[in-house]
């Protein structure tokens, strides 16, 4: 089955490719469709933004499209950066800038518990979308640790492994992350969602 991953984020794309390597998907991403304009993320929730990305691209390509809208939620910062995780420090902010801003905002008096959310939407023009969500809980460190991963991984400490997500290999992160938990749910529900359609 042809599957377009509706993302420009190379970190996400690597994780999808590794997690789905044993499944019969012919995966492409938005980099293979340079004519498609970026979909504005005007929603107010992860699900709304994930739906916008997947359903818009599915209509335009008439294909199966999978999107991920994800982010880091810090309850003591009123759930920031949340759906604004990619642009926390500004419209074209780098991961570096976003991590610096998080360290500035999360002053020493505040609780450092946080969680990642990944909402996945699988869309096709003639079907009701399949929506799943995964989460993982951790804590925000006061300085970066590790070089792997992307985004907030160097600051996201995961107590069960006593490491940050940036200290995990791609394979290790894919056994515990929010995105891998969401992918697991998606795969569980996929046969039923596809029905008599071919994989
Ligand atoms: P696409 O919309 O093209 O997929 P994006 O990076 O703009 O790419 P989002 O709007 O979903 O995607 O923003 C997700 C941001 O949340 C991402 O840029 C990171 O800053 C953060 N994030 C999500 N998953 C993460 C992970 O596994 N590790 C670290 N940070 C993550
Ligand atoms: Na978003």
In a few lines, what is going on in this structure?
It is an enzyme of class 3 (hydrolase). This is dITP/XTP pyrophosphatase. This protein is an alpha+beta fold and about 200 residues long.
User: Helix tally?
Assistant: 5
* Overall 3D shape: globular
What does the radius of gyration come to?
17 Å
Provide the low-confidence segments as ranges: none
Name the ligand types: inosine 5'-triphosphate, sodium ion
Organism: Dolosicoccus paucivorans
Family: Belongs to the HAM1 NTPase family.
Subunit structure: Homodimer.
GO molecular function: dITP diphosphatase activity; ITP diphosphatase activity; metal ion binding; nucleotide binding; ribonucleoside triphosphate phosphatase activity; XTP diphosphatase activity
């Amino acid at each position: 089955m042809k599957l377009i991953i509706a993302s420009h984020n190379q970190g996400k794309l690597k994780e999808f490719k590794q997690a789905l390597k044993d499944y019969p998907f012919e995966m492409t991403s938005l980099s293979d469709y340079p004519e498609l304009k970026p979909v504005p993320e005007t929603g107010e929730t992860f699900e709304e933004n994930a739906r916008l990305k997947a359903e818009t691209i599915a209509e335009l390509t008439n294909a199966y499209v999978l999107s991920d809208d994800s982010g880091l939620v810090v309850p003591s910062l009123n759930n920031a950066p949340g759906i604004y995780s990619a642009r926390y420090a500004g419209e074209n902010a780098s991961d570096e800038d976003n991590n610096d801003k998080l360290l500035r905002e999360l002053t020493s008096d505040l609780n450092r518990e946080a969680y990642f959310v990944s909402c996945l939407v699988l869309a096709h023009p003639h079907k009701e979308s399949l929506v799943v969500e995964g989460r993982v809980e951790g804590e925000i460190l006061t300085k970066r640790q590790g070089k792997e991963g992307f985004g907030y991984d160097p600051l996201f400490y995961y107590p069960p492994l006593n490491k940050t997500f940036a200290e995990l290999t791609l394979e290790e992160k894919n056994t515990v992350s929010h995105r891998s938990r969401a992918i697991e749910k998606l795969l569980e529900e996929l046969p039923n969602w596809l029905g008599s359609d071919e994989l």
